[in-house]
Amino acid sequence: MKHQTLFVRAAFVMLILLITPAASATEFHVSGRGSDIHDGSLQRPFKTISAAAGVAQPGDIITVHEGVYRERINPPRGGESDDKRIVYQAAPGEKVEIKGSEVIKEWVKVLDDVWKVTLPNSFFGGFNPYSDTIHGDWFDPLGREHHTGSVYLNGDLLNEAATKEDVVRPSGTAPLWFALVDKKNTTIWARFTGVNPNEELVEINVRQTVFYPEKTGIDYITVRGFTMRQAATNWAPPTAEQVGLIGAHWSKGWIIENNVISHSRCSGISLGKYGDEWDNTSANSAEGYVKTIERSLKNGWNKETVGHHIVRNNTISDCEQAGIVGSLGAVFSRIEGNHIYNIHSRRLYSGDELAAIKLHAAIDVLISGNRVHDSWRGLWLDWMAQGTRVSRNLFYHHGSEDIFVEVNHGPFLVDNNLLLSKYSLQNASEGGAYVHNLMAGAIARWPDPGRQTPYHPPHTTEIAGLVNIKGGDDRFFNNIFAPASLSEPIERYGLGMYDAHEFPLRTEGNVYYNGARPYAGEATPLVLPNLDPGIILVEKGNSVYLTMNPGEGVLKHSTSLVSTDRLGKARISGLGYENPDGSPLQIDADYFGKARNPMNPAAGPFANPHPGNQEIKVW
Question: Which pTM value belongs to this model?
């Protein structure tokens, strides 16, 4: 009888579970007029985003209403799947700012335009960016200290001075700041040229980051529609934890979209590595990074646990190391439609991790449709770019080159890009395929036989072997080489410098203007040494226009469609150029996504060029 009773009760519980609908997702609201003791409903919103983060469960949505929120969001949990994620979003049509800074109004005048403020160290809690020095592997301070703190006047960043005397010098005019921290107080001196800082918006960095989980493995989070500014981030090398103004922190499946991200002391968005006791101990050696990779594999660096992020349609600017940075943690991700500019534009320090987008191990990463300009370097793919595709991007006005590929064995694909800086490409890799690009700048190439770097089985993080870089084994099909200005020796334009490589190139269908030289082994290049296509790039508001005249010869040039079969296999990895799912690819669409002529696709990034001077809207 007892067993019958238990059976009946169990059956009753199962019946209730079957007929009770699953709990629906909850939408929590946040407003500056709310309170953190409220329930987060639209009528009784929370006051802080952190309070909403503390209660949100997989499938829930956090909607933040107009205002400025000065807090660091440390999500304690993520979603369970791509369909059951936790979404953080700005309310539609409302401007929501999240800042890592605080407003300071207690400035005391010292002399002329120089003011100072003294704050108790308790004001900063457990993290004081004015005693936190920027440091790390491959960082070069250029002979002085730099701190993660910053001072802002009406949103504009003041440079940190090397000494207090640089700020208080009577003859000085440049806006600068300097800070000293003792056991009790932090004192900041700042020169605010021509204004009273107590009557303006003056902010100082207080928080290291704005949106970044303290724990790893906080998966399936969406962050959309916010303006996020002013974080005291430190240097983010590939061998240490990489903290960004916003970052996924060694997690899976984040979507970061439609945000404005700016004024991170070092990096804007991080898709990077976790931290451990070996952070910043590489002694600047390649071996140190190999050991980092080995430890990461033991700590779960694989397709099931890390990466698969989407970073799209963000505006990222005014970060001094990288707009987007990631070591190992960006695998299998997509970076699309972002506008990135003014990265490392102040150049007060230096180092080897400086680029608008800097990725180590961009395995099966798609970088597409981005506008990247006015930075030190555009895109830097460093180590293990395998299965990577760089497609339909606009690069221009960089201090160095548009794309730097360093010690990769391939296969990786660079197609349909506009590369319009002084240097279009710096190539210290092999096994790359460059297809239908417009290269208006010079090319630098150099092998790097001193570093053994990994290659992988297809579409995985596992290591198949380590080999040094001898150079060559690249493919250049259907590109246009058109020097916009001859600021470098003419032999650096086109592919002539590859003639001496140990491993030959495969080249077909390329067009060479204005003195650019073809590769000696190319059978039927179109060489137009006396024709300058007159490439000019002009920004008009939020749009960008390219002016050029390709002439009539390019229309008659014979080319063939580029596909997986035609590209063959990279020499070291033995792998073909294919889509991340293993399916074959065809370069059958142009920069705009328009279909190419399959029988004779035009060289360069545009499917239907025509002779004569033309203005093309490229953004």
Answer: 0.95
